[in-house]
Amino acid sequence: MEHVTDTPTLRAPAERFTGDVHLNMIEVPAEPTRLAAALVRFTPGARTNWHSHALGQVLHITDGVGLVGTRDGKVVRISAGETVKCPAGEEHWHGATDTNLMAHIAMVVGDGNGDGTTWLEPVTDEQYAAAHAATGR
After folding, report:
1. What pTM was estimated for this model as a whole?
2. Residue 102 burial (CB < 10 Å; 0-12/13-18/19+)?
3. Distance of alpha carbon 59 from alpha carbon 66, whole angstroms
4. Euclidean distance between the first and final Cα of the chain, in Å?
């Protein structure tokens, strides 16, 4: 058994996120396990860049209200207690709404060469606004 008593809060890298985002790593992929898990906190308006995961991603929302969007225009509004499963290879983004913070536990299974995430371009303000409109809020 390993008892982890402290996971430092880090500012998420600006080249992968828009806005003020902080994370606490819960697990980093290392053989023989490949789980990567983090508690990620987004301030209002903050969001990830577009990205995909080689083996998919699971997001469990712990606090607040947010959005998850896909390239095909599908958007879901997410709240504490809900879980979203993003399939392998699907380009998507997630973050807080423009008026609420949002926190989630993000989980991925690494591909043997890290966490298997491919980071892409930022979500534009227009795409973010359209996501809000798509949820009727």
Report:
1. 0.94
2. buried
3. 11
4. 46
